[in-house]
Amino acid sequence: MPAAESYPDDLKYHPEHDWARIEGEEAVLGITWFAQDALGELVHFEAPQAGATVSKDEAYGEVESVKAVSDVVSPLSGEVLEVNQKAADEPETVNEDPYGEGWLLRIRMSDPAEVDALLDATAYRAHVAEQ
């Protein structure tokens, strides 16, 4: 069952509908409720390999739904430490729990100052309302 609309206050958001949970020098990344809702039921997640580098504002993978294929944009730069294998094996997990079990990557940030450029939950909600 799809998750209810939410934008947790403890996350930072990218205007392209990606989120980051900051954990010290690491960050967990995923797509927002808005993104998974717009895409519909996800059927595939094409992820980078652990050890790869992702760059802020650039695509690092794709999510495919029954409606479309969409790039996943990294809200921060860094080295991929872990890919959520559950999201790769069972992409519908992203629809069911986009901020919990449906996370996509864990990275070690190469420039923690990039966090300052991301939106907080209030600003992201305003951004979504304009869509």
Summarize the structure in words.
The structure is a single chain. The radius of gyration is 13 Å and the shape is globular. Strands 1-2-3-9-8-5 form a six-stranded antiparallel β-sheet. Strands 4-6-7 form a three-stranded antiparallel β-sheet. The protein has one domain: OB fold (Dihydrolipoamide Acetyltransferase, E2P). It has helices spanning 33-39, 85-89, 92-96, 121-129; strands at 12-14, 18-23, 26-31, 42-46, 53-54, 59-65, 69-73, 78-83, 105-109. It is 20% helix and 34% strand. It has 131 residues and is an alpha+beta fold. The mean pLDDT is 96. The protein starts with 11 loop residues before the first strand and ends with a helix. The protein contains four helices and nine strands, in the order βββαβββββααβα.
Helix and strand arrangement:
Layout: E1 12-14, E2 18-23, E3 26-31, H1 33-39, E4 42-46, E5 53-54, E6 59-65, E7 69-73, E8 78-83, H2 85-89, H3 92-96, E9 105-109, H4 121-129
Antiparallel strand pairs: 1-2, 2-3, 3-9, 4-6, 5-8, 6-7, 8-9
Give structural attributes:
131 residues, alpha+beta, OB fold (Dihydrolipoamide Acetyltransferase, E2P), six-stranded antiparallel beta sheet, 4 helices, 34% strand
Concise summary:
It contains 4 helices and 9 strands; from the N terminus they run βββαβββββααβα. By secondary structure, it is an alpha+beta fold.
